[in-house]
Amino acid sequence: MEKQPNKLIREKSPYLLQHAWNPVDWHPWGEEAFSRARETGRPIFLSSGYSTCHWCHVMEHESFENAETAALLNRHFVPVKLDREEHPDVDHLYMMFVQATTGRGGWPMSVWMTPDLKPFFGGSYFPATERWGMPSFRSVLEHLANLWEHDRPRLLASAGSIMDQLSGLTRPQEGTDEVTDAHASACLAALERGFDAEWGGFGGEPKFPRPAVLSFLFSHAVATGNRHALDMALLTLRKMAAGGIHDHLGVAGLGGGGFARYSTDRFWHVPHFEKMLYDNAQLAASYLEAYQASGDELFANTARDIFHYVLCDMTSPEGAFWSAEDADSLDPYGSGEKREGAFYLWTEQEITGLLDPEEATLFIATYGIRSDGNAPFDPHGEFTGKNILIRTMSDNELAGTFEIPIETVGKRLNSARKKLFEARKKRPRPGLDDKILTSWNGLMLSALAKGSLVLGDTTLLEAAERAARFILDTLCDSKSGKLLRRYRDGQAAIEGKAADYACLILGLLDLYSASFDSDWLRAAIKLAEAQIERFFDQEAGVFYSTAVEDHSVPLRMIEDNDNAEPSANSVNALNYLRLAAITGRDEFRTIALRTIRHFSGTLDANPSALPLLLVARQIATASPVQIIFAGKRGNPALAKLVATAFRHNRPELTVIHADETCEALLPEAAAIGKMHKGEPAAYLCAGGSCQPAIRNAESLDAALGSFAFD
């Protein structure tokens, strides 16, 4: 009998399409599935994941491709597949249930619920056979089907009670106290307790980068002069750049490079090899902050490496940015199986066969290559005899050890990397998730715009502007300011979430700072106004994740954690403070202050939950400082002045262009533009007054270096 696809074949999500030929009768999340459950009286089985998820692939192969398991699932349940990246609000709701009832979470997420979407049992990955102290997936299906058949009233009562509890957790209540310096100090203390002083990062393995924490540390160091906060951030970024989590075969203009999602060990050595756009966007910004704070070229070069990777390997023909590359790829040695990290691993024999002897000797010492493989642990036997590139010696150390000039070290390593890069290109590439997500693109726009200023690279600004034009033309209604979340294969779809608005506004504001094109500022203001109307709770002073008219999720959620992706509320607090400083509109500042205040109770309970919100609070309490730049856009002297301002990591500094044609938008700046004559100049303004015009980069650099921002 010819194999037939299920209903997912009509979807655009790469993750759903991966499951379109399973024998499971999958439905996408939506009314068709819910109606089917009500009509048949069967519970819903929700499986949520994403296309580059390793354990999602494992569970699919073990269970969802198995005809007997599929028949059991189809007979007793209505199976629903969800791409968590398309519907993060739905995933968040049910993940909160799983974490509350099991004490842990992760993907694939497995949740059983009533036809009216109330959960009663959940978990993450279930193996095909009982192992690791976990029941088999089939035994769970059989047990729950039996309970639904013979003890349904108890399950329904339990599900109703659980939903009531979830509803209580999601009900907004504005904080009763202000967020204070004490909250920032408590956050720093919590991070210090979890800091790995030898290898950087926070907490034990697995280790995640969490750039929001790094942003807090940089901001706190600027605000307080706390050297330890700065040192923790810099050490973490240095160790990550040296680790296996970093793809060391990035070649400028050709591709490669970037960072994997997280490390399975404390040494940043053995990564989970998937590469996510949101990680690389945020880490690029973190490395730029580190460069601003330290002047160390290592950080600038690492940011460049990330940008090269994204622009070469993650950019769509339209100019926007794809979502992710998979952890798994086909074994290059021809076994026909997909393996974790297969694209990135090397044997010593391969390296010596591809490189000249002098290059090979140097490369082996540089990257810790061993004949028996260098992975410190290998729980699934996938790294036997293989090496994960990890930087073990600096160029200076290599020059001393091998008694060669440091320039020779650089030349040999560059030659070796290019040769291995070209050899790697012949291997089967990891799978690509080529959907375009508005929020993740917004984060990348922000990083590229900042990079163009800090690194002095106009190609980064050009790439950001091209991507922004595509997003605004394709995923945004210019009249209403309404956003869509996802584009793929010619289709823009899915109601935008608060994160889409927040992150795109962030990117547009940074584009304005980098280009002084007021169209980006106008677009940001339009989106900010639309977001207040559709997402902001005027009584509680907080943004919901889902718009008021979006009924795709049973309960509207409030993001209250800066995790791998920043909370929309934290990003919004930053955005509205910045919009208020640029435009002078007090209502934007009020929105930001109420959002910050809302989470005082959250920060009381968990001081490190919202580090990026604490950055916003620091900006809100600092004295407002602006630099108003006068002069014609595109003038090299003006560009030099602007670049000088961004040598300094001053989060509370607002940059504005004195465009005399923008009187309605920026009246004060326009007035300066009208009266300014002559060469480009910078006006440093604070306390309601501006200093005399500064006309050269050296004077501006000195002024910013000595200026008291508090």
Could you walk me through the main structural features you see in this protein, from its secondary elements to its overall organization?
One of its GO terms (biological process) is carbohydrate metabolic process. The protein is an alpha+beta fold. The chain folds into 4 domains: about 160 residues, Glutaredoxin; about 325 residues, Alpha/alpha barrel (Glycosyltransferase), CATH 1.50.10; about 80 residues, Arc Repressor Mutant, subunit A; about 80 residues, Glutaredoxin (3-Layer(aba) Sandwich), CATH 3.40.30. The protein is about 50% helix and about 10% strand.
Question: Given this structure, which CATH class of the largest domain is correct?
Answer: Mainly Alpha
Extract low-pLDDT stretches. Answer: none
Number of strands: 21
**In this structure, how is the largest beta sheet organized?**
5 strands, mixed
Mean pLDDT rating: 92
Strand order of the largest sheet: 1-3-2-4-5
| CATH architecture descriptor text of the largest domain | Alpha/alpha barrel
The general outline is globular
Rounded to the nearest angstrom, the distance between the terminal CA atoms is: 74 Å
Question: Number of helical segments?
Answer: 27
- The proportion of residues in beta strands is 5-15%
- Under CATH, the topology of the largest domain can be stated as Glycosyltransferase
Q: Tell me the Rg in angstroms.
A: 26 Å
**Domains (count):** 4
Structural class: alpha+beta
Helix content: 40-55%
